[in-house]
Amino acid sequence: MRVLGVDPGLTRCGLGVVDGGTGRTVRAVAVHVVRTPPDADLSVRLLGISDAAEQWMDRYKPEAVAVERVFAQHNVRTAMGTAQAGGVVALAAARRGLPVVFHTPSEVKAAVTGSGRADKAQVTGMVMRLLGLEVKPHPADAADALALAICHLWREPMRVRLAEAEARAAEIAKNHKARLAAAAKQAKTQGAAR
């Protein structure tokens, strides 16, 4: 499976494409950071991010897009810009019929390093090790985008299996309730007939 990981941001938006193989095998395909000028109009900046994301989707043909979810930030303006950048990427993916999954920073850190509290250096180091990179992806947004793709490749199969199991359990519970209701109705009918 090929995944486009996106570390959204207005000034720097990381894009990373990773292929997943059997087991936990991962291979870097491409990585890039889209930059927009802070003094440009918001709509122009979002258009630049959207255009770049669309070009990457068309060029690398990912099967899914993993975007970092804005979880909590003290600076509301930064959080808004990050969410808007992630939104235009999600829209571009939806137009292509690609599934989009949002992962929290702690989910990504835990998947890649084993600890949801890992720092940027630990994440970058593990991304380099997992992908066999000799040069550190720079800036950190690039490494984060690759980490998001890896996280998705490793977490999504389990999430899908869990959702399928929950759906099966709900169907079994629904059928069981229906059988109980039918048995109760039948017992009531038989009791009235006596």
From TrEMBL:
Domain of life: Bacteria
Keywords linked to the UniProt accession: Cytoplasm, DNA damage, DNA recombination, DNA repair, DNA-binding, Endonuclease, Hydrolase, Magnesium, Metal-binding, Nuclease
Record-listed Mg(2+) 1 binding positions: 7, 141
Residues annotated for Mg(2+) 2 binding in this entry: 68
One Pfam family here: RuvC
Entry note: cofactor: Binds 2 Mg(2+) ion per subunit.
Localisation: Cytoplasm
Function according to Swiss-Prot or TrEMBL: The RuvA-RuvB-RuvC complex processes Holliday junction (HJ) DNA during genetic recombination and DNA repair. Endonuclease that resolves HJ intermediates. Cleaves cruciform DNA by making single-stranded nicks across the HJ at symmetrical positions within the homologous arms, yielding a 5'-phosphate and a 3'-hydroxyl group; requires a central core of homology in the junction. The consensus cleavage sequence is 5'-(A/T)TT(C/G)-3'. Cleavage occurs on the 3'-side of the TT dinucleotide at the point of strand exchange.
Protein name: Crossover junction endodeoxyribonuclease RuvC
Organism from which the protein derives: Amycolatopsis speibonae
